[in-house]
Structure formats: structure tokens, C-alpha cells
Amino acid sequence: NTRRHMARFNPIFFVACTSWLVCFVAGQPRFCGLPAVTGLCRASIPKWYYNARQGKCLQFTYGGCGGNRNRFESREECEHRCVPRDICQLPPQKGFCRARIQRWHYSSRTGECKPFIWGGCGGNGNNFRTYWKCMGRCDICLMPPETGVCRAAHRLWFYDAQTGTCRPFTWGGCGGNGNKFNTFRDCTRRCGWTWWR
């Protein structure tokens, strides 16, 4: 599971478990690390909660009162609030120290890596030593196609870096990564003619 892999090795997705029930993930609301709580009442209402240990949203039965904020009406709402964003989508952060170290961050607005000054500690995972490490991790054209977490069936296009061409794939309707385009033309425009590939 890619998301679990990222949660284990990516600094922005660091999981800290304060007990066998409670986990917190850097960069997301603290309530996302709370356990599912049925509550004090005895109704039987299907809800969703974020399971920080598994890195995904799961369904549970809510009693109708009490509980905590890690409770959502739908899987989509749960994922929107609690599933950690990819580091490449995060804004650059200087951090809280006062050094002046040049680093690189990926700009999802321009689709390329840009220099910024890092303070030497803190910040987030969108922080790379070199331009090439940044592009290798964040360039959407190098990412594999991802269906996403929803179950729709939309025909989109992705850039296949192995073959150097754009190919169709089925997208589930939400999630996935940036290597998805509505048309072959959009895909080739963005990824087909990049000079360093």
C-alpha cells in the first residue's frame, strides 16, 4: 500500500502513537489520531473514522451521542480531512531555526522545483537538497498512474515515463496523484516534451 509506505518513510507523514489506541500524524488535525468511539447512546448509525495505524478511513457504528471529532458522514469527507497530503503539494516552509540554507521545493502551481531558504530545522517534507532529488520525487510526469480511493470509472491519460508516451488508464474519481489528464493532448503538452527526460 503506497500510502502506508509513505507514512512510514516520509517525514511529513510521521506517525506518533502515544498509546495503543491513539496515533497522531504530523500535518493533519489531531482528532484524526483519535480512536473510533461508539458514544453513550445506543443507536446504530454507520459513520467513518480515520485509522492512523492503517493510514485509511474505515467504517464504524456510532451510537448517536458523545464520541469524538474523528467521525464523518462519508469516506470522502474523512479522506479530505485526515488522509495526509502528498509532500509535493505542501507549501515551502522556512522552519523555526535561523540558518540560511538553500534547498529546493516543488511548486505544484508551476510544476517545477524552485529554490528557497530553509532555516535548518522544522518545516515540512517539501524540502530537498538538490533540484534533481526534488524533481525525481515530485515531477508528476515520473509518477506511476494511481486509480485513487473512489470507485468510479473515468477514462483519463497518464504519462508513462518508461515508454515516453501518454497512455489511457481508469481513475476512480478522487485521490491518486497529479499524473492524470483529461485528454491525450493535455498529457503530451505537460509531459511529452520536457527537455531533461
What does this protein look like?
InterPro entries: Kunitz_BPTI, Kunitz_BPTI_sf, Prtase_inh_Kunz-CS, TFPI/VKTCI-like. GO terms for molecular function: serine-type endopeptidase inhibitor activity. It holds the Pfam family Kunitz_BPTI. Keywords: Disulfide bond, Protease inhibitor, Repeat, Serine protease inhibitor, Signal. By secondary structure, the protein is of the alpha+beta class. It folds into 3 domains: 2-82, Pancreatic trypsin inhibitor Kunitz domain (Factor Xa Inhibitor); 87-138, Factor Xa Inhibitor, CATH 4.10.410.10; 142-192, Pancreatic trypsin inhibitor Kunitz domain (Factor Xa Inhibitor). It is built from 4 helices and 8 strands; from the N terminus they run αββββαββαββα. The protein has helices spanning 2-9, 75-82, 131-138, 184-192, and strands at residues 15-17, 23-25, 45-51, 56-62, 101-107, 112-118, 154-160, 165-171. 25% of the residues are buried.
Multimer state = single chain
Indicate the mean pLDDT: 81
How far the N terminus sits from the C terminus, by CA atoms, comes to 28 Å
Q: How much helicity do the residues have?
A: 10-25%
Query: What percentage of amino acids are in beta strands?
Result: 15-25%
Number of domains: 3
Rg, Å, rounded:
19 Å
Strand order, biggest sheet?
1-2
Topology pattern, helix = H, strand = E: HEEEEHEEHEEH
CATH topology label of the largest domain: Factor Xa Inhibitor
Q: Report the count of strand segments.
A: 8
Biggest β-sheet description: 2 strands, antiparallel
CATH secondary-structure class of the largest domain: Few Secondary Structures
By CATH, the architecture of the largest domain is named Irregular
- Global structural class: alpha+beta
What is the number of helices? 4
Unreliable parts? 1-26
> Tell me, what's the shape?
flat
Give the CATH H-level superfamily of the largest domain: Pancreatic trypsin inhibitor Kunitz domain
